[in-house]
Structures are given as C-alpha cells and as structure tokens.
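Message: I would value a second opinion on how I read folds in token form. Give me a protein, with the fold worked out from its sequence. Write it directly below this note and I will take it from there.
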Amino acid sequence: MTSPSVSRVICLRHAEAEINVQRRFSSEIPGTPLTDLGREQAAATGLALVAEGVAHVYSSPLLRARQTAEIVGAAVNREVTVLDGLREVGLGAREGTPGTNTEFFQHPAFQAWIRGDDLAPSFEGGETGTDVVSRMRESLDAIADEHLGGTTAMVSHGGCLVAGLLHLCANLGYADVERGVPGNGTAIVVERRDGEWSCLSWPTVVHH
C-alpha cells in the first residue's frame, strides 16, 4: 500500500484489435473486438499485474478496451468500471478511413498537441486537444480520488494516453513520446502525489 496521499494508476493501451489489423482510424462506439493475438496480449498483461495489488480496473467504453479490461480484471480478480472519459480521440471526418499509427501520430493536429504548441486543432472536425486533455485529467483524478493510497489499472487508447498524460505529468516532455504511440497491451505507470501527477515509467515498445 502506498502513502494515503499517493495514488498509482497503471495505464494500459488496449490489446490488438481488428481495427489495428485493418489499418483504419476508429474512435466511435462500439468499435471492433480484439483479435486472437489481442486476447493473448491481454491475458499476458493481466498475469503481469497479479502481483501489483490492483484494487479496481477501469476502461474506455470502446469494445477493444472493454474486452482487454475484462480479461485483465479476471486475471487480478477485480471488477471493471467503464468511464466515458477514457475513450479514444474523436476523429471527426477521419472516422473509419484508412490510416496507420504513424499517420495518426504525425497528423498536424496531434503534433500541435504533443509539442505543446496548441491544443485548439482537431482531426477534421473531431475533438480538440483541449477536449481530450480535459476529460483525461477528469477521469484520472476521479480514479485517484476513489482509490487514495492504492493502485488501479485502466485501459484506454494510444492517442488519448499520449496527449492526456503528456499534459498531465509535469515530468513528461515531447522527447519522451516522440517515438510514437505505445504498442498494444503496453503499460504506462503514473502516480498522483499531493495533487500532482508524474510518470513513473513509459513503455519502450511503440507501434509505427
């Protein structure tokens, strides 16, 4: 158990889903399910978290995240709660169009967000960076408040994890995330100590 003033959150990107294999952009609910490989990834992630003392599992409402969270939750014997604020970046007119993680990461709007230049742009009429960072902050603060002094896990998406955590954690900068979107099933560990968020570990595995 950590100090009562510290809350630790293990932030997971969902495991591989059909949308990843299809190489399309998707952020609308319900989205596509996990692949067989994705289920294996989620099971391995769950086993890795058994010793972490996870008190609860939270999830984005998209199917690929919920399925990941359910597999992880079963491994650590914890219930799953869906939080709408953990959903992927709203993509506007890009929804359903062909695209890779590299194209997502290099999109001018996303680059503006993560370079700290401007949170106002959006993906072709989708959410602004301000929208994404605000709901991610609200969701993580709510999780931390609910489990003061404890450890939780949450399952979200590459885009909102990078943008949200970069602006949430004072010790993260563009140099930490410039390699790309974290790989499916990888973990980012953050903590809130005395009201301030920091990143304890950033994954070395990325999807290009």
Summary: The longest strand covers residues 6-13. The longest helix spans residues 129-146.
